[in-house]
């Protein structure tokens, strides 16, 4: 696939036909977000570990600057992203019979997203999260997964998979057992598959995940998830090492590499190993330090866009869904990375996971501009 471009150096914009159909599968949540002034809550940062903690005093009422309620969850966040990018989107999620479920369904209706495949479980409440945001606005999250954990193979109607793209978001607890069935049904219908597995799935069901790698067209992992995947790969696939040709300083994750217990693995070696196992495209995100994509024999790196941060929740969902949408439509991977970076940065400006998600004309307008577009760097894979 070529990098694409116009005579003036802007990204190529092929004529778009009928909207691609996409199904998202995974979690649906109601998020309650409390914003706490930095002066009202203590924060402890560990010098010898990459971790920090917010301290809540037992028995004390802490004043909040704002408490708000929003729809969230990986499948719903991705669906809203796809819909705003102009794709014909539906969701396969499991909800309770409660007010939280009605709020999620109303959100989907407002975005023009079909929920005909949503399943209602009278025995379990709809999932919910409480986010505490303060200091650097990287919220601490308390999660109740509820009905999300009860998604079962019997809930996966074959008709739901009659789409162009199936996006598999994080699957909770017992719902992970649906992963191979989702892959099978998507393949049977001829759909492309994008997978964004969570750390629990990788840690608890790694062998199943590893066996299904050849069937995944786009595999998206953040740094922590990629560290876990290192444990599933053969040590002969490569050890630690920067191994980035050229005089340009490697990005931070390329210098750090990926780590699982005593094993270290270079980013290029990691991506090559997954591509050799049949993954079509590997996307590796590293928050404020940008993202990589291994595709078409190249390893691409896109820095993160500069943006004010009100909250980090949902930025990963925005990045992965935007990249998948642009790639599924045949856009150059360089352009897909830039669009994903722009959309993720837009989400950072809001405390919730969906308000900042951009619409297609706004993304394409930004891509065609000269300012604020990250420069994509490429190396041979």
Portion in strands: 15-25%
Mean pLDDT: 91
Q: What's the N-to-C terminus distance? A: 15 Å
Radius of gyration: 20 Å
Number of helices: 11
The total strand number stands at: 19
Q: How would you sum up this structure in a few lines?
A:
By secondary structure, the protein is an alpha/beta fold.
What do you see in this structure?
- The chain has 381 residues and is α/β, with parallel strands linked by helices.
- It is built from eleven helices and 19 strands.
- It has helices at residues 74-84, 99-110, 179-188, 199-204, 206-211, 223-230, 252-256, 267-276, 315-328, 333-348, 360-368; strands at 21-25, 29-35, 42-45, 52-55, 66-72, 88-92, 94-96, 119-121, 127-133, 140-144, 165-168, 192-195, 218-222, 258-260, 263-265, 281-285, 291-295, 298-302, 377-380.
- A nine-stranded mixed β-sheet has the order 6-1-11-12-13-16-17-18-19, with helices on both faces. The protein has a four-stranded mixed β-sheet with strand order 5-2-9-10. Strands 3-4 form a two-stranded antiparallel ribbon.
- Helix 1 crosses helix 9 (315-328).
- The chain is globular and about 55 Å long.
- The two termini are 15 Å apart.
- The model is unreliable at 1-15 (pLDDT under 50).
């Amino acid at each position: 696939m070529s990098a694409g471009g116009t005579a003036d150096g802007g990204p190529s914009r092929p004529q778009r036909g009928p909207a691609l159909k996409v199904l998202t599968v995974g979690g649906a949540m109601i998020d309650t977000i409390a914003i706490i002034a930095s002066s009202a809550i203590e924060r402890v940062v560990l010098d010898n570990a990459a971790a920090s903690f917010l301290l809540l005093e037992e028995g004390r009422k802490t004043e909040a600057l704002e408490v708000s309620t929003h729809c969230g969850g990986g499948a719903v966040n991705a669906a809203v992203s796809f819909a705003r990018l102009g794709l014909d989107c539906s969701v396969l999620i499991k909800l309770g019979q409660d007010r939280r479920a009605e709020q999620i369904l109303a959100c989907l209706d407002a975005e023009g997203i079909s929920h005909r495949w949503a399943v209602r479980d009278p025995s379990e409440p709809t999932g919910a999260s409480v986010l505490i945001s303060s200091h650097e606005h990287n919220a601490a999250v308390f999660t109740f997964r509820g009905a999300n954990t009860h998604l079962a193979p019997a809930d996966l109607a074959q008709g739901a998979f009659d789409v162009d793209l199936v996006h598999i978001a994080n699957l909770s607890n017992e719902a992970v057992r649906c992963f191979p069935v989702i892959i099978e049904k998507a393949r049977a219908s001829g759909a492309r598959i994008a997978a964004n597995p969570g750390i629990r799935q990788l840690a608890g069901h790694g062998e199943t995940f590893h066996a299904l790698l050849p069937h995944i067209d786009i595999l998206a992992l953040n740094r922590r998830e990629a560290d876990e995947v290192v444990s599933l790969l053969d040590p002969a696939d490569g050890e630690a090492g920067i191994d980035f040709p050229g005089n340009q300083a490697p990005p931070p994750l390329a210098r750090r590499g990926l780590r699982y217990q005593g094993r270290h693995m270079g980013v290029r070696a990691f991506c090559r190993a997954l591509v050799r196992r049949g993954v079509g495209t590997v996307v590796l995100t590293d928050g404020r330090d940008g993202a990589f994509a291994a595709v078409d024999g190249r390893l691409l790196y896109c820095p993160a866009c500069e943006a004010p941060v009100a909250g980090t929740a949902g930025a990963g969902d925005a990045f992965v869904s935007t990249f998948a949408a642009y790639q599924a439509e045949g856009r150059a991977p360089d352009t897909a990375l830039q669009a994903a970076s722009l959309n993720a940065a837009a989400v950072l400006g809001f405390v919730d996971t969906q308000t900042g998600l951009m619409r297609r004309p706004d993304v394409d307008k930004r891509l065609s501009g000269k300012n604020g577009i990250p420069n994509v760097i490429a190396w041979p894979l």
